Amino acid sequence: MQDLPLNGLGFFFDDHPSPMWVYDIASLRILKVNNAAIRSYGYNEEEFLSLTIRDLRSKEDVKELENHLDENSVNQAATKGIVRSGMWKHRTKAGHAVYVEITSHDIQYKDTNCRIVVAADVTDKLRYQEEALLREQELIGTKNSLEALINNTEDQIWSVDKETRYVYMNQAYRSRVAHLTGVAPRPGDYSYLHSGYNEDSVNAWKGYYARALAGEAYSIVSESVAPDTGETLSFEVSFNPICTSKNEIIGVGCFARNITERLKTEKAIIEQNDRLRHIASLTSHELRRPVASLLGLIAIMDRVNFFNPDNREIIEHLLTVGNEIDEVIRLIVDKTFMGQGGNSWEKYQSP
Questions:
Q1: Which of 124, 246, 287, 329 has the most CB atoms around its CB within 10 Å?
Q2: Residue 313: what pLDDT?
Q3: pTM (two decimals)
Q4: 89 phi and psi, to 5 degrees?
Q5: Residue 273, Cβ density class (10 Å: 0-12 exposed, 13-18 middle, ≥19 buried)
Q6: With 90 as the cut, is the pLDDT of residue 48 above it?
Q7: H helices within the chain, ranges in order?
Q8: CATH number, domain at 40?
Q9: Residue 229 maps to a domain
Q10: Three-state SS for 253?
Q11: Residue 18 sits in the same domain as residue 46
Q12: Are residues 85 and 159 in the same domain?
């Protein structure tokens, strides 16, 4: 390679880690190139010196290059000093795209007005930025999806800090508290320390939060009365400590689910089981007794001489036993379909 006609510049140029070249501002032809440019672009020195700076761009980018040179007067001899042209896309000999930040300075080389160019490769930096942007967009998308999921559930989700101030609340929680108390909670408010809660409720919730802030994860059933219907509502509330990576507790995460209907169903199942037990008792005890009497009467009946006068008394007893069986069957039907008939049931309890 030829040395630049400036003391010490040749060594600086040839061994600089970034690609560098010198080009003629009139023809744009490359007159000198360093080792880093040869390695990065894949051209040998002879091939490089047969190129112009246009040849380092794709055909579709050449017009943009020429507009930039004209609009910024880069290729005028009067333009002195450093010119930072920003980021550009170049092509290697193999056709691969590389992204470089171009900085140039005017220079006299072989008695010609030239510019010396430093092309700092920012391909990896740009790729990292694009990947980081993509990851950020994915995180934003995931956050938005999670937020939508959380706010579309009827379950109530909220969190408080160590001072029991609200940090986060989903829409279901805001709506429920506003419905019960008439006051919509806001981030930064003290949880339960506003109008709508009596002193007993405030003290109870202070205790719940204190247990979780002490490190206990647990659940309770909390009841409240709907102001519009007067219905007692039951909620299963879970309290979970929120910890940092160093296991320091910084707040409490809470999850509440309305279990009013579930409790009603469980109560109905218990009542139904009680009725089934009563029915089983009627069947196994109260019905067995008259049936046994019926069988006994039939056994002593004179079936050879049906007109035996003794049969009249037996038939009267059979009628009584039949009525008793009918009453027991009626009670079983009542217990099965209505769950009523308490007095009648007591009538048939065994002493």
A1: 287
A2: 84
A3: 0.46
A4: -100, 120
A5: exposed
A6: yes
A7: 9-14, 35-41, 45-48, 59-71, 123-151, 171-181, 199-213, 260-281, 288-300, 310-337, 342-347
A8: 3.30.450.20
A9: yes
A10: strand
A11: yes
A12: no
